């Protein structure tokens, strides 16, 4: 047996990428789309995955776009979390993305890579769960657009040979009141016990959670409880935690009971920020 | 010329900040093979079958070894560990097979393809489980193992690898005279050294019989002896080279990878083979630091005088003993902490578990030990309603008293703890540990803790120094201590420069160690290098000065006793203008006529610690080290009583350094130790799953302090009570910064939250749970 | 389309020098730098998992953990390693402030600090902390490193 190579392809169009991917798959190379690459490299080193080839999508112009166009903001999947924070088009996305991993890693981790991660966290997805966003998907027929809410159900729902090209959202969302909190066991740089991104439009607070359960989630029932303006913050936070439809996880970072405790006081402070105007 | 007491820049500084300093695996030779172990995925299981066919089919694989190929046991004290598991695996991560291949990547792939059938066995996952009456026996043959280095007393048909006793004072205990008696239990997890450079070793067996070893070791001479012993070689055949080490903290004093690399090289005809730990391997396979479960009973008069102590220390040593019996004796010898107690009963047990085996760890057991002592002292202070600093002061160990193992204490060997305590009170503005409210839900509180430590080195540990002179009068210094980070080599150069009254930048120290050319230094552990190497350097300097004077006396036509040495010159005491330069006599003295006498000046110094002995089996009586370093550490914490989050505002240390040889160097090493100690207190522990799996074997899950999480302010002060027999009076300092930090944090947290914080690490969740958790 | 399926001769720009070197597609930048062809061993493997920062180098002005970057992705970028910062302000201040002990993590810290100064006109404590907590040091108390970075910032005019 030969040591598996990991062949490297860098297409310059979406169609070329998907065609290459399909061909590699057909030839039995178990290809993977490559963006920042950090997760593939770490998993490959531990022999958790054996990709025989990677298709680097960063050479595709649409994957690298990062701009405000007319009424919309467009974030290419290949944009690094560091670049997102530097440009700061959408403060909530900045605040959330800027707490992923550590600063140096964020130079490399990309928006698409973080959202497509196999880890339970995928924190950069949280702001997108709170707005009406459009996803650009790379398919064999070129770029297709789909509503992001249809594309993400705890994890990206894509065909094996499809990949996320970009995310698009109205500029209006950048002016919503927002807050984002990442709570860890102890350290600033660590996976979250719970990471919460929240916005407020008129009377409704919307919150999305990562780290609490096996996948990121949001829920209308939680938002309703959080938005009951006549109740004290602490009471709403307590009820919101009770309304979470997911099972809190217990792991080396913290027990389920402690996750609930942290989520509760964090939600109370989030409501206070969103309603008290800092 | 003054060198001692000055902040001399380190000899390795420029190479290190420019990335040019070379560590063990920075220089590789083309054609080197790599050996990669396959690790056990069970904490306790019988190995039923190992199929290596698929691994051997990987292109470039040269050999696959299993326990059957290595049918012998190794150990530093008790020979209980097979290099590769025999029949059973005893911890998660234990090496079961070893693949040798052309490249590391190929070897890793092949190792992953080895197919092993296991039959899981009941896992002993804690000290308590190990000591249950019907506990599974991890080593059923414990009483039949060979003892390589006495003493160790394994107990047959138990999981107790060793038992050390300390009995001091009247056999009729003083408990009835005590007005107050407290009990306290502390439980500390195993922790990892996590040196930034993982452990690695390269071995080549030459046809002529020489064995060349390159290793990240702190103990090249121990590696030499172990390989010679286990592979029936003359010690001179084994040449161990230890370059700069990327952090060690005790973890690189154990001999493990060198044996694997030797076996791998032997399997491929002696070719050069490297074993380089991945970070995961370094955590789970290579030894970690011991866990501790300690029980204290302390009795005191109502004025605070401690009369009696009954103590049990049970160590989670993991699956093999390694240096644990020595650690147990170190703990036994200092078991009361730096307090005078006339009636002591102490038992230290080394307990086998199905955890990763353990070895020396910065402080050699004294950090967990100090934690347990200082939590008990704090509880006693509470029971007595006494200021805890005052209680420490009243009982502080003093000259004229004796240690728990009845070693006589003098001002020279024990230093001045009361002075350090008083200095700490000023430094941290001690307020008795009162809780100060600083905001809504925010309080600040102080905590302090004292420590002491001696070397607990073997009574026959040696050290040496060789000085050679270059023609231009500069000197080369060769010592056997490894540079792991604290600046050992620079300190040795300083001592030489001071003794010869010459500029330290004209002293060139061999920064690496090679057992073939450098004189032996026992091991670079126990903070002893300055003392032992320093003594040897002093001896070598005396020798050199004698040689220089003898030769100069001929040149200057006088008696050697007329001469003095300074500024790279030998001159008449009464008329310094009558002199010869070092460069005139370094390689012999040449008369104006051209004929020459003498030759190269080569001086040597040799040292062995005097008057140490092994502790008595029944009472522990004995002298464990040449001197103690005492000190006090303190913290000021800010605690959020709503979220249980907290931060370290100030961290302080006052240590009796004897004499500070290099102020900036000393401060750096102590600060670094404090940070590491705080890291243990606030976040670090090895986490085992319910099946004994080593869960946090990566740096993303085994968390340490990072930038921004260090104390807002470090306060470091030294008291100087000279240790008369030590070079310039200096006491050991290298390990001590860590020793009492976890205890100080626990003492502060306990006061802040009205809890007994006896089980580090203290993450907000553990404080929340202690304060009532869900029920609160 | 760039496609690399085996041994490949790439062009790399390291510390201002252009070098042609043979790499395999799965080689990391760390292994390229430490390999025999270049032997720039200042970049250290500490975890090869992106966790510790000891292998950090600077690519086009930004810090990157070289264990997490493919060599073939680093073509056409300006690669700076610690060896390329010889005699510059950051290493000088690390030396002056005793901001190292064993020295193994040091080059990573120096490169992050260097990149921070390239990208930040005015540094402050929060910025230093945020950039440098990407790295792990096991010997120092971090304060020495923090002081060295401040001193370098002041010397370069990025201070306050």
Automatic annotation (TrEMBL), chain A:
Coiled-coil ranges per UniProt: none
Record SUPFAM superfamilies: CO dehydrogenase flavoprotein C-terminal domain-like, FAD-binding/transporter-associated domain-like
Keyword Metal-binding in annotation: no
Superkingdom as given in the UniProt entry: Bacteria
InterPro entries in the cross-refs: CO_DH_flav_C_dom_sf, Diverse_Substr_Oxidored, FAD-bd_PCMH, FAD-bd_PCMH-like_sf, FAD-bd_PCMH_sub1, FAD-bd_PCMH_sub2, Mopterin_DH_FAD-bd
PROSITE patterns: FAD_PCMH (PS51387)
Pfam families, per database record: FAD_binding_5
An annotated Gene Ontology molecular function: FAD binding
Domain FAD-binding PCMH-type stretches: 1-174
Keywords carried by this UniProt record: FAD, Flavoprotein, Oxidoreductase
Protein name: Xanthine dehydrogenase
Automatic annotation (TrEMBL), chain B:
Residues annotated as domain Aldehyde oxidase/xanthine dehydrogenase a/b hammerhead: 18-122
Keyword Membrane: no
Keyword Glycosyltransferase on entry: no
Gene3D superfamilies: Aldehyde oxidase/xanthine dehydrogenase, a/b hammerhead, Aldehyde oxidase/xanthine dehydrogenase, molybdopterin binding domain
Record InterPro entries: Ald_Oxase/Xan_DH_a/b (IPR000674), Ald_Oxase/Xan_DH_a/b_sf (IPR036856), Ald_Oxase/xanthine_DH-like (IPR016208), AldOxase/xan_DH_MoCoBD1 (IPR008274), AldOxase/xan_DH_MoCoBD2 (IPR046867), AldOxase/xan_DH_Mopterin-bd_sf (IPR037165)
Keywords on record: Molybdenum, Oxidoreductase
Molecular function via GO: iron ion binding; oxidoreductase activity
Any single Pfam family the record assigns to this protein: Ald_Xan_dh_C
PANTHER family: ALDEHYDE OXIDASE 1-RELATED, XANTHINE DEHYDROGENASE
Protein name stated in the entry: Aldehyde oxidase
Species: Sulfobacillus benefaciens
TrEMBL record, chain C:
PANTHER family hit by this protein: OXIDOREDUCTASE WITH IRON-SULFUR SUBUNIT (PTHR44379), XANTHINE DEHYDROGENASE SUBUNIT E-RELATED (PTHR44379:SF7)
Organism of derivation: Sulfobacillus benefaciens
Gene3D superfamilies to which the protein is assigned, alphabetical: 3.10.20.30, [2Fe-2S]-binding domain
Gene Ontology molecular function terms on file: 2 iron, 2 sulfur cluster binding; metal ion binding; oxidoreductase activity
Stored InterPro entries: 2Fe-2S-bd, 2Fe-2S-bd_dom_sf, 2Fe-2S_ferredoxin-like_sf, 2Fe-2S_ferredoxin-type, 2Fe2S_fd_BS, Beta-grasp_dom_sf, Diverse_Oxidoreductases
PROSITE patterns: 2FE2S_FER_1 (PS00197), 2FE2S_FER_2 (PS51085)
Name this polypeptide is given: (2Fe-2S)-binding protein
Keywords: 2Fe-2S, Iron, Iron-sulfur, Metal-binding, Oxidoreductase
The keyword Transport is assigned to this record: no
CDD domains associated with the record: fer2
Pfam entry (one): Fer2
Ranges of residues in domain 2Fe-2S ferredoxin-type: 8-85
SUPFAM superfamilies membership: 2Fe-2S ferredoxin-like, CO dehydrogenase ISP C-domain like
Protein origin, superkingdom: Bacteria
